Known about the structure:
Number of helices: 12
Largest sheet: 11 strands, mixed
Signal peptide: 1-28
Helix content: 25-40%
Keywords: Hydrolase, Lipid degradation, Lipid metabolism, Signal
Protein name: Lipase
Number of strands: 13
InterPro entries: TAT_signal
Amino acid sequence: MTTHTSGSGPRRRTLLAATALAASGVGAAQPRAVAAPAARRVRLTLPVPSGPYPVGTVSHRLVDHGRPDPWVASRPSRELMVSVRYPARDVGRYPRAAQMSPGEAAGFDRLNNFGDVPRGSVDWAATRTFAHQGAPPARARRGAADPVVHPVVLYSPGVGDPRSLGTTLTDELASRGYVVICVDHTYDASAVEFPDGRVETSRLPEEYERAEREGTVVELLRKTCAVRVADLRFVLDRLEAIVPTPLAPSAIGAFGQSAGGFAALQAMHDDRRIAAAANLDGLLAYVQEDHDPGPLSTVAADGVDRPVLLMGKDGNDHHTVPSWGALWEHGSGPRLDLTLLGSGHATYTDATSMLPRIAARLGLPKEMVTGAIGTVAPERAVAVQRAYVSAFFDRELRHRDDDGLLDGPSARYPEVRFVD
C-alpha cells in the first residue's frame, strides 16, 4: 500500500521510511534546513482546467464523535478536513483558493515527498488553484424545479501527502461537472490546518520508526489503510451535509494516488455506496515493494463486482504487481488496466507540473525529477490523466461514453498502453 520516493540502490525506500528520514534530515541530497529569502523562493502555477464549468470550492471540518482518533489517544473524536470542488457560476466575484493554507504549506515544506528539494526554497503557500473560494454552485436548467444532479467522487491522496496535492485532477473533474470531495487524513498528511488555526502534523515518521524497531511494519501498513477507509466511509455518511445546495449527489465514485488508490478500492469493497473506483499506482497488499506478493488486502483477495480502473506507472500492471493480479483474478466487475508509458509513481500528483519547474529554478539534477515523475512530458501526463480518469467516471457514473476512449488504444494518446 505504500508509495515510493526516488532513492539510490536496488531497493527503493517506502514512503513511510522516506518520511521518517525526511523528518530527521537524513538521506536528502540537498540541505533541507536553510530557508531562502521570501523574494527568491520559487513560486508555482498549476494547469488550467479544461472542462466547461468554472470551479468553486468550500472546506469543511468534520468530526466523527463515534470514533476516537486512532493516531492520538488523547483525542476522543476523529477530526478531518475536506475540500469540496464543484461546478460553479459567477466566479469572478470570488478569489481563487490557495492550494495550501500557510500552516499546511509550512508543514509540507518540513515534511514532503520531494526529498531533494531544499527546505525553504519554494513558496508553497503562494500557489493558487483555479477553484474560487465560496463561489455559488451551478444552477439548474432554466425552468427546472429539481436540484442539479452531479456524480460525487471522493479523492484520497498518497501517504504523507495533503489533499491539495491532487489539485490538477480534482479541479479538472469539477470543471467537467463532478462534485469532488478531497479528504485530508489527519496525522497521516504532512500537515492539516483546521478553521481555528490549529495545525496537526503527521505522526507517521515516529510510527514507522517504532514499527521498524518492533518488527510491526505490516501491522502499521494495515492500520494506515484501515484508518483511511474509515475516514472515507465517514465522509460518505456526511455527504448530504457537505455537498453544496442545489447540487444533489447521484452516483458515487472514489479514486486516489498510491495509498489513496488502495483506500479508494478497499472502501468500495467495504461499502456498497461506492459504484466505481480508480487506483492511480497504489499497491493492494501490505508490502514495502511493488512486486512483493503479500499479505493481500481483502479487496485484492476477494475482488469486487463493480468497475475498477488501475492506472500504473511504467512497469506496473496486473501481470507484474501481485496484488493487482489477485484483484484481476478474483474480481467479477469490469476491470481496466492502463499504463502511462514513461511515467513514475508521482506522475499521478501535482508533482508532474511542479517538480520540473522547481528543478529548473534551483538547478537540481534531472535524475531527481525523472526518479519521481518519469520521463513522460509533463503536459502529456496531465492530458492523459484528465482524459482517462474522466472517461472512466463518465462511463461508470454517468453511463456516458461519448468517444469510446476506453475501448482500446487511441492515436490521440499514444503514451497509453492497454494491458490485457
